[in-house]
Amino acid sequence: TLTQNSMEFKKIFSDQTYFELEQLPELKEMIEQECELRNGPMSDIEEKVKTSGPLRRPIRRERARIIRDMISALALCHNVTPIENEEGSREYQASSPDEIALVKFAEKMGISLKSRSHLEIVLQNAAGKEENYEIVANFPFSSETKRMG
Question: How far is CA 135 from the centre of its chain?
Answer without folding.
Answer: 14
